[in-house]
């Protein structure tokens, strides 16, 4: 179980409130829905604008075929495979030394997940949902299961990344991508808490479960794609470690969201 030292409840409560306010949008949510949590359409995810430029160039030169992408997971059309591949590449860039865990988490959460919550109303209601979310997150295991394949590190292999650790003695628990709760996990926790005690005539449970499962499948496909890049072997820029960082971030988010949903 999660230790208080790792995720103190007062720290969790503060983060939950910050995320809640960040995602509150009373003007753009159906009246009968108090929360919305689902993956963004992969075709609409364009983190750095590169996909839009590529599409514009392809349309301007109709003879240029869409670039083929070998991407495991669900069957997608070539344009969607390309969209998902470019999303992974943009997340991979956030593992570079110019970025941080916070920027990786913010980039993924803000681009990959649609979250809309009713803004906190009465203080007592806000506190009740916050406390329930804290309880849900506190029940999560302190660490997700380790990946089946660790990588052998050298000092050279961790160069160029914001995650600098002792290459000879690191452990799974040392990785901040494993230690920290990602924004996606917190958003799912809030979404569950907001609807936990709703009236029985609010017939949205099936849709919410479908959206949660869609998000889990979305994450699973991204993990498969990142593994595909990782398993290409040591590439020319020592980028295996950086793909490993991204995989551990996605893996940890997937496992914790899976535990919350089921």
Task: Give the structure's gist in a few sentences.
The chain is mostly helical. Helix content is 51%, strand content 4%. The chain has nine helices and two strands.
Largest sheet: 2 strands, antiparallel
Count of all domains: 1
Low-pLDDT sequence parts: 1-5
Strand segment count: 2
- What is the SS-derived class? mainly alpha
Shape: globular
Sequence of secondary-structure elements: HEHHHEHHHHH
Q: Termini distance?
A: 16 Å
> Helix segment count?
9
Structural features:
51% helix, globular, mainly alpha, 2 strands, 262 residues, disordered N terminus
Structural description of this entry:
By secondary structure, this protein is mainly α. It has one domain (9-58, 72-261). It contains 9 helices and 2 strands; from the N terminus they run αβαααβααααα. The chain has helices at 9-23, 50-60, 78-93, 101-112, 123-138, 176-179, 183-194, 205-230, 240-261; strands spanning 35-39, 113-117. It has a two-stranded antiparallel sheet with strand order 1-2. α1 crosses α7. The longest helix has 26 residues, at 205-230. It is globular, with a radius of gyration of 20 Å.
List the helices and strands and how they pair.
Blueprint: H1 9-23, E1 35-39, H2 50-60, H3 78-93, H4 101-112, E2 113-117, H5 123-138, H6 176-179, H7 183-194, H8 205-230, H9 240-261
Helix pairs in contact: 1-5, 1-7, 5-7, 7-9, 8-9
């Amino acid at each position: 179980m999660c230790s208080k030292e790792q995720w103190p409840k007062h720290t969790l409560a503060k983060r939950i409130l910050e995320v809640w306010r960040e995602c509150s949008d009373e003007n753009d949510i159906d009246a009968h829905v108090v929360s919305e949590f689902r993956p963004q359409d992969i075709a609409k995810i364009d983190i750095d604008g590169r996909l839009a430029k590529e599409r514009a160039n392809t349309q301007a030169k109709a003879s240029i075929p869409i670039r083929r992408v070998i991407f495991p997971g669900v069957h997608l059309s070539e344009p969607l495979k390309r969209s998902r591949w470019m999303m992974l590449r943009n997340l991979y860039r956030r593992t570079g030394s110019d970025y941080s865990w916070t920027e990786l988490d913010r980039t993924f959460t803000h681009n990959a997940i649609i979250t809309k919550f009713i803004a906190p109303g009465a203080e007592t209601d806000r506190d009740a949902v916050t406390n329930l979310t804290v309880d849900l997150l506190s029940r999560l295991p302190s660490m997700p299961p380790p990946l089946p394949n660790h990588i052998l590190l050298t000092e050279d292999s961790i160069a160029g990344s914001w995650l600098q650790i002792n290459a000879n003695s690191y452990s799974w628990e040392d990785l901040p991508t494993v230690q920290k709760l990602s924004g996606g996990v917190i958003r799912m926790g809030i979404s569950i808490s907001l609807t936990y005690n709703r009236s029985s005539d609010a017939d949205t449970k099936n849709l919410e479960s479908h959206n949660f499962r869609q998000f889990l499948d979305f994450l699973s496909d991204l993990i498969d794609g990142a593994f595909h890049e990782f398993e290409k072997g040591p590439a020319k820029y020592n980028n295996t470690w950086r793909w490993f960082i991204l995989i551990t971030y996605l893996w940890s988010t997937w496992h914790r969201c899976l535990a919350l949903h089921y």
